[in-house]
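USER: Write out one fold?

ASSISTANT:
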Amino acid sequence: MPPPGTFFRPFLRRATQRANVMGTTQVAVAAAVAGIGAYAWYLRSNNTKSEKPIFSSFGFHSLRLDSTELINHNTKKLRFALPDASKPSGLGLTSAVLTVAFPNGRWFPVIRPYTPTNDLNEPGYIELLIKLYPHGKQSTHLHSLQPGDTLTMAPIKELAWTPNQHSHVALIAGGAGITPMYQLARGILHNPSDRTRVTLVWGVNRDEDVFLGEEFAEMERKFPGRFRAVYVVAEPEVGSSHRKGFVTREVLEGVGLGAREDGNKDVKVLVCGPPAMEKALKRKGSGVLAELGYRPDQVYSF
């Protein structure tokens, strides 16, 4: 008999392919919903301890919400306790979790991927930053959770990151798409054997949406010359230090992200954001990244 979950893996791959983190609607695949929902329902309470970290292999698990913290006007930090407080989650760099919930007594599950933002080596818990979207089924449900409630989730592997494979990586994020970029940037910079240079460009609506600004500022202080963060704000406050507008060709060229520039010959570009932003960046032949000289194989979308 195949191991639990083997039958569902092809569905999960389709359901999560090209998904945007933290609440986008692209992730759900109707053909897989019933099967995944039934499997998740069956395994909700199956949290038996093992010698391995909980997410070191495929499987759905129900984790208890330990605490919540309001980060800004529409973003909450949710900390979930792992069943073994002495072990980390087992998630690797660029991994995410696929969350499964049945809000308001729904018959079919709501399925969304989210990227943990805590240090993956820390034992005992994982943290998710959840942005509340208008009419967002999963984000609304997650914002309503209280300590003691549970959430079913399973691990998702994304890009397999190899230290020093690229001398420079460009992270281009929009809104809540920042979470996989934050996880990857921190993982690269805190790995003493990885010397990859990191440039981050983050587009948001308002100044208060830069909810990881302090964390990125600390990275810039600790790793001068290796990490740079640039924020582009659609509607900045009066006197804002951030540039106004959107993530455009001019913005990317202005921060040294032209593919033809010295030091960018093997740059890897990672993109995560709203569909409209990704379309503008990646449109075949006429997108911003193509105009800057990037080949399709240099670009990856979370």
In short: The CA atoms of residues 51 and 90 lie 11 Å apart. DSSP finds eight helices and twelve strands in the chain. Residues 1-34, 40-48 have pLDDT under 50 and may be disordered.
